Structures are given as C-alpha cells and as structure tokens.
Amino acid sequence: MNDVAAWDGGLVRTWLDRRLAAARLNQAAADRRGYGAEGDYDAAAAEEWVCRALQVGGHADDAAAFAAHIKTLLGQEEYRATGIHDDLRFDRNVRAHLRKIAKMTKANEGFANTLRYRT
Fold it and tell me: For residue range 8-66, what is the model confidence (pLDDT) as tens digits?
C-alpha cells in the first residue's frame, strides 16, 4: 500500500497564489496598524517575496526542481525588496519561509492546506 501522494504541481501553484494574496492582505493590515506593526509588515513582505520568487521559472511541476530552486534561493547572501522597514528582519523572514516550504516540499505535504499557512 502506497501512502505517499504524487507531487501535484498545480496544487503547489495554487498554494503559492493563495499565500501570495494572503501576504498582500497581511501587509495592508500591518500598514494600517502603523509603526508598531513594522515587524508584521516585513514578515508579510518576506512571504510575498518568497511566493513570487518560487513562482518564477515554472519549477513547481517537478518536486526535485522545486527543491533545487528553494536551495538556490536559500544560498543567496541577501534579498532585495522595497518598502521594508528592517533589512535583517526581512532576510530572516525570507529564510524562515524558504525553510518551511523546503520541509513541506521534502515531505510533500501541506500544499493542500490553502486556508492557513501552518500544517
């Protein structure tokens, strides 16, 4: 009996699209809250950056290519984005999101959960 589900690139793309939209909403909400929510804004901006970067190149159809793309992104020295408040906090959040998605990719689980991020 095979309990391991096959990799579904369409499901991964849908998950990325929904997380991208949620990250934009989270940024807008943090922006409305003002100065005290700068950390939340940077975290949401990092998630948006990660989802956008993972959508580029069409790697989602193959688990190995997707994992390699994540590894390449993790190998970058820094991540550029405009409008963020703290570069170091943004970089930490980008790396955290990339590591979380790398774990999801390795286990091939969590992408069906489009209603919330954590599996």
Answer: 999 999 999 999 999 999 999 999 998 889 999 999 999 999 999 999 988 999 999 99
Chain centroid offset of residue 19 CA: 7
pTM of the full structure: 0.89
Nearest-angstrom CA–CA distance, 58 and 34: 36
Residue 46's SS3 state is: helix
Task: Quickly tell me which residue has 């390795």 as its tokens.
Answer: 106
Could you tell me the end-to-end alpha-carbon distance of the chain, in angstroms, rounded to an integer? 24
Q: How far apart are CA 27 and CA 22, in angstroms?
A: 9
